Amino acid sequence: MTxxxxxxxxxxxxxxxxxxxxxxxxxxxxxxxxxxxxxTVSIALIGLVLGSMIIFFLSxxxxxxxxxxxxxxxxxxxxxxxxxxLLTLVVVFRKQVVINPIAGFISRLFFNP
Length: 113
Hints:
Layout: H1 2-70, H2 72-92, H3 94-111
Helix pairs in contact: 1-2, 2-3
């Protein structure tokens, strides 16, 4: 009977060790994927801030260039109209432009090995 108890104890120990290893592997995988996710979000935010600054100053330059011909007020209205059209396009095509790329990135990150 001692040999069976020893085998059962060994079997139970191996099951516990395997379970602990699987939990550790899941923690490491989650940490890796969250690191990639947070890094991507951080880079996107930095790019958004820098891109916004570039677009702001470029818009001022374009408005000043247009203002030479038609005046400051109408030049700013033209630049504003361009951004309204751009915003409308992003809202209309939000699924293709925003939702699908983010969903695809998250799916690839968490469900592909």
